[in-house]
Each structure stands twice: as C-alpha cells, then as structure tokens.
Amino acid sequence: MKTLKDVISLKFKTSESEGVIFHGEGQQGDYITLELKKAKLVLNLNLGSNQLGSIFGHTSVTTGSLLDDHHWHSIIIERHGRNINLTLDRHMQHFRTNGEFDYLDLDYEITFGGMPFSGKPSSNSRKNFKGCMESINYNGNNITDLAKRKKLEPSNVGNLSFSCVEPHTVPVFFNATSYLEVPGRPSQDLFSVTFLFRTWNPSGLLLFSNFADEMGNVEIDINEGKVSVHINVTQVKKNRIDISS
User: Fold this and answer.
1) Where in the chain are all domains bearing CATH 2.60.120.200?
2) CB–CB of 4/78 below 8 Å?
3) Residues of the chain with pLDDT under 50
4) What confidence tens digit (pLDDT) does each residue in 55-68 have?
5) Across the chain, where does the E strand assignment appear?
6) Does CATH number 2.60.120.200 belong to domain 2-149?
7) Residue 42 half-sphere exposure toward CB, CA atoms < 13 A
8) pTM across the whole model
9) Using CA atoms, how far apart are residues 63 and 46, in angstroms rounded to an integer?
C-alpha cells in the first residue's frame, strides 16, 4: 500500500507497561509503529529517508502516562501527508513528520499486537502487546470483525481469544489514616515481601515491621517520590542500613 492519507483507530487496555500495539514497514525504509514504553504511548513514523543521509524521516512522538492501569484507552491516528493528529483519550496532539516525503509505503504486512521477528535489532528488543483491544479500524477496514470472521487473507492469527480476561489481582485502597496489619512469622529468619503500588502522593509509609526479640525493624517508605528501605538492627555496630531508589 502507498497511501497519502491514513486513519487508524482502536481501543486497548493492559496492565503491562511495554508492548507493540501495531507495526507496519516497507522495502523503501518506511515504517509506522505504535507501542507502549514505560506505560506511555509512543508513535514512531518514517515516510522515507534517502541513502545519502540528507533526508532523515524518522519521527517519534510520546503521549500519555500510566496507561498500564487496565482501563480502556482510545487512540486515533489521522495522517494527511506529513501532518499528523494523534488523539489519546480525546487529547489531541498535532505534529509534522521529519523528511520531505508525503506517502507511507508499506509493502510488507501490518501486524496488530506485536511485530514479526525480522532479524533487525529493533524487532527482538520489543515485547508483544499483552492485554485487550477492540474496535480496531484501519483505513475503513474493521480489523476486529474481519479477524473474528476469518476474512483477513493472508493472515496469521496466533492464539487469539475474542473475549477480554479480567486480571485476578485484588487492589487495596488506603487513605491517609487506614492501614493493613498482618501477623508475622517469628520462627523464620527470612523476611520477604513483594507488592505493586501506585500513588499520586510524593511521600508516605508503605510498610513497617518490627523484628522478633527486639532485634530491630524494617521500614519501606516514599520520600519526595523516591522509594527508601531502612533496616535497623540493634545488636550490631553498624546498626542502620538505608537503601534508596
């Protein structure tokens, strides 16, 4: 396909912070990739570069944040030549691509949910999308419906289910005064804890535990946006360990 105009729209939800949403490329060096990186949406686009290096077409635009919240997010990409409107959840960003070319020349396949392994360094470092998509529309083609009715030819549909599986995790919300207290394990000499958290507050106590027999305590907190671990041991000379990240 060699197009002057493109309209691509879809909705997605995921709890993963990395993943390729869709990808297309051509023999002339053109490509378009929409992916999640660090829970932000990144659109990479190249309408063509020349071999002399005087025309460099690569363009990258980032929008949004915390998109791995397992809520539905909508994307619309509207392109007319080098002019692009990228809309994420009704927030539109307008930009113009680098280079001097107006046509997007994609003569290989377009893939949704990942990209084929091409042997290029860029392909094996990217993760496939893990989550749900709906209402995928590419230049007037309802991709979701065509895939479900197996009308995409040629196509390679790998292990898709046409339903959205909800995660089994149960979140807990804490306000400024609430806390959760659980019994310790006094007979064990190993302390191990793991959890995921999200907050808008720059400071707060995440975890506190006293060791048995008044041996000390461990504390995990957020201080000005940084996570710190404090371990106090009462019976050694260097009795405090502080780890900050």
Assistant:
1) 2-149
2) no
3) none
4) 678 899 999 999 99
5) 2-3, 5-13, 19-25, 31-37, 40-46, 59-63, 73-80, 83-88, 91-96, 104-105, 110-112, 132-138, 141-142, 204-210, 216-223, 226-233, 240-244
6) yes
7) 16
8) 0.70
9) 18
